[in-house]
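Q: what sequence does this backbone want?
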């Protein structure tokens, strides 16, 4: 379950970098809870082709995070914000993202 949440967070950061088809399959699988078989029926493609496409999308999301580290930086920023006592500063920082 943690890996699914992580992939969904990465999708929030990098989803626009995927192709339309990759986004559709990823969203169908992770957000719409469709099985590979259901996506296969809806698209006319084989389950294996759907699986490969989703796996490729996951790999790309991981690659983007490895290079750009937006998720990692967001987590660090969130931990820094927790240690700040000034509400005005917290609001200003939170408005940045």
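A:
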């Amino acid at each position: 379950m943690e890996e699914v949440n992580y992939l969904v967070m990465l999708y929030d950061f990098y989803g626009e970098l995927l192709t339309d088809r990759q986004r559709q399959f990823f969203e169908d699988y992770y957000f719409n809870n469709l099985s590979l078989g259901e996506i296969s029926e809806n698209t006319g493609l084989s389950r294996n082709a759907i699986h490969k496409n989703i796996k490729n999308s996951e790999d790309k999301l991981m690659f983007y995070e490895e290079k750009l580290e937006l998720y990692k930086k967001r987590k660090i920023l969130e931990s820094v914000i927790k240690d700040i006592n000034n509400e005005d500063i917290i609001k200003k920082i939170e408005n940045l993202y």
